[in-house]
Write a structure and sequence with these properties.
With 372 residues, the protein is α/β, with parallel strands linked by helices. 60% of the residues lie in helices and 6% in strands. Pfam families: ABC2_membrane_3 (PF12698). It is found in: Cell membrane.
Length: 372
């Protein structure tokens, strides 16, 4: 089969197969809207907390009003007993408990230790826990600066130093802007990987998985073009529709996308040729999505992982993809800035293409057993 016929035949198979069409094309559209939906508010708002006011002073009452006025948390109850508040948190009525201890105002004004503010949070959701802690800290700092001492001075050394935090890239400071650019790379990789592996598994079942050089090239380019379209769709239209912060190197992104798509497509052809049927490819590869995401280093630094885990992660195209596309799309990085992950992507694209070629074209057996 010639190169162009293989290219067109592969696209025809994708568009006429319900499995491949839903996996490689429709799934990208679905996930591009489904995944960001829960994070449309970007940051948690009005998380319920219970305040235990043992001080019952003007300062503590003012602090409670300030806490309730923040965007992040909402005071759902004020009690005088810590046990009641902790019971509410265990029952799911509140995400946190804030204790204002007895004598807080008096001791703060006198500058003597003893009383304080304690915070208990439900750490099941790390983002919620950190949000409550940040809100309490901000309120305490504001009260210390504006109400404890005359003239807004906190110390005898003069006026307090004001620290202004300004996000450079994720300007909304939201969770969607942080995680979705990395997840988008996983979406492209996994949908393409599943589809290509399913295609190869189905061809192996019918005994037609062995290809000539031209057919192999046309098939690889066809699958790569699917990945290219998916990347441009997500990085362009969907990022804009979803309000994902973008300050990108568009030309750099456009140039790198085909390399990433080729690496994933070649890996899919290589892995898929091992399975004796298409369904088995889906079963075996399905559980890899979450581990592959964690191995990108988006949630935990790669250099803090065990060396063998970090080394293995670089064999997955999405790892280098995240470290290439996030800087290019969100940080206006140059190709020189992402030279290391880009070089790894090029290596993977060449390496997996060569291995797939050897497996499917050069060393494939002449007679293939057809599995029932």
């Amino acid at each position: 089969m010639t190169f162009d016929r293989a290219f067109l035949s592969t696209w025809h198979t994708i568009l006429t197969s319900k499995t491949l069409l839903s996996t490689m094309l429709l799934a990208v559209v679905l996930y591009s809207f489904y995944y960001p939906a829960p994070y449309s508010h970007e940051a948690p708002r009005k998380l319920p907390v219970v305040v235990v006011d043992q001080d019952d002073s003007a300062l503590s009452r003012s602090m409670i009003l300030d806490l309730d006025a923040t965007r992040s948390i909402g005071v759902v109850n004020v009690v005088g007993n810590l046990a009641i508040a902790r019971s509410d948190m265990r029952e799911g009525k509140a995400d946190g408990v804030i204790l204002i201890s007895d004598g807080l105002e008096r001791q703060l004004r006198a500058g003597t230790p003893g009383s304080g503010i304690a915070v208990w949070v439900n750490a099941t959701y790390l983002l919620r826990a950190s949000t409550i802690g940040e809100a309490v800290t901000a309120v305490i700092q504001n009260i210390a600066k504006t109400r404890l001492l005359p003239g807004g001075q906190v110390s005898r050394g003069g006026p307090p130093v004001t620290v202004v935090k300004e996000p450079l890239f994720n300007r909304t400071g939201g969770y969607k802007g942080y995680v979705f650019p990395s997840v988008a790379v996983i979406i492209i990789q996994q949908t393409l990987l599943f589809g290509v592996a399913t295609f190869m598994g189905a061809r192996r079942r019918t005994g037609t998985w062995r290809m000539g050089a031209a057919e192999f090239g046309g098939t690889l380019v066809a699958f790569s073009s699917v990945g290219i379209l998916g990347c441009y769709f997500l990085f362009g239209l969907i990022f804009w529709l979803q309000g994902v912060p973008v300050d990108g190197n568009v030309l750099g992104m456009v140039g790198v996308v085909p390399i990433f798509a080729a690496a994933v497509a070649a890996l899919g052809m290589l892995v898929g040729s091992v399975f004796d049927r298409g369904e088995r490819a889906t079963y075996m590869l399905g559980p890899t999505s979450v581990p592959f995401f964690f191995l990108t280093g988006a949630t935990y630094p790669l250099d803090q992982m065990p060396r063998f885990v970090s080394a293995f992660s670089h064999l997955i195209p999405s790892t280098s993809g995240v470290h290439t596309f996030v800087p290019l799309n969100q940080m206006r990085a140059t190709l020189g800035d992402v030279a290391s992950p880009l070089l790894m992507l090029v290596t993977l694209a060449i390496g997996y293409s060569a291995l797939a070629y050897l497996r499917i074209v050069v060393f494939a057996p002449r007679s293939v057993r057809v599995h029932a």
